[in-house]
Automatic annotation (TrEMBL):
Enzyme Commission designation: 2.7.4.3
HAMAP family documented for this protein: Adenylate_kinase_Adk (MF_00235)
Underlying gene: adk
Protein name: Adenylate kinase
Main subcellular location of this protein, as a coarse class: cytoplasm
Described function: Catalyzes the reversible transfer of the terminal phosphate group between ATP and AMP. Plays an important role in cellular energy homeostasis and in adenine nucleotide metabolism.
InterPro entries per record: Adenylat/UMP-CMP_kin, Adenylat_kinase_CS, P-loop_NTPase
Catalytic activity: AMP + ATP = 2 ADP
Cellular-component GO terms for this entry: cytoplasm
Gene Ontology molecular functions: AMP kinase activity; ATP binding
Length: 190
């Protein structure tokens, strides 16, 4: 069983690459952003709460996000492994994930980060915002706020996983196929 954290700044390509990786490696893909958006679309209490944060580009509070993620893992008891996309995003989330997996006799196998220059990523998101309808992609101020959140709360997780010898970086610039090839080369080592 392998459990992988797919890591990267907003727009790095986590969701795009996860679609391929989950099939190739038979992993259950859990994207916290997608789960929140599903709840917003269905007007659940969780969705209403998450929307107040997501629309501004702020992180949803840890306790809400951690509980949601754990419940999604528990919905997949037969899973051969998980591909975590957009989680963890804070040290509290990383610590909770480690403890939660340990309680099941599991652990994170590796964290794989997609690396790319901020300006390229902002351009990608502004382009997607034209057609996706994602409120947090609509203007540069919200996108920049997501980067501020990343820099203040998420970037430190690289050191957290490096200290465990579990951090791998992959160049996220190039065509989608080129990035997939680089990721596959790393995933094949797990
Ligand atoms: P989330 O949905 O996770 O958004 P994000 O991290 O900002 O990630 P994106 O989906 O924007 O980017 P991505 O890296 O998946 O790239 P993608 O493949 O889509 O989170 C949204 C919000 O939810 C957060 O801001 C927060 O409020 C909340 N949230 C989520 N998780 C949370 C957590 N753990 N704790 C608290 N709050 C949480 O690609 C982006 C675009 O680029 C696409 O248009 C794609 O087609 C294009 N693209 C991809 N690869 C390439 C390439 N190689 N070349 C050119 N274009 C490319």
């Amino acid at each position: 069983m392998i459990n992988i954290v797919l890591f990267g700044k907003p727009g790095a390509g986590k969701g795009t690459q996860a679609e391929f990786l989950k099939e190739k490696y038979n992993l259950t893909h859990l994207s916290t952003g997608d789960i929140f958006r599903f709840n917003i679309k269905n007007d659940t209490d969780l969705g209403k709460l998450a929307k107040t944060y997501m629309d501004k580009g702020d992180l949803v509070p840890d306790e809400v996000t951690i509980q949601m993620l754990q419940s999604e893992v528990d919905k997949n008891p037969q899973s051969a492994g998980f591909l975590f996309d957009g989680f963890p995003r804070t040290l509290a989330q990383a610590d909770a994930l480690d403890q939660f997996l340990a309680s099941k006799g599991q652990s994170i196998t590796a964290t794989v980060a997609l690396e790319a220059d901020d300006n390229i990523l902002v351009a990608r998101l502004l382009e997607r915002g034209k057609t996706s309808g994602r409120p947090d992609d609509q203007d540069e101020e919200k996108i920049r706020n997501r980067y501020d959140e990343y820099n203040q709360k998420t970037a430190q997780l690289m050191d957290y996983y490096k200290a465990q010898g579990k951090f791998h970086a992959v160049d996220g610039i190039g065509t989608i196929a080129e990035v997939t090839e680089r990721l596959t080369a790393v995933f094949d080592t797990f």
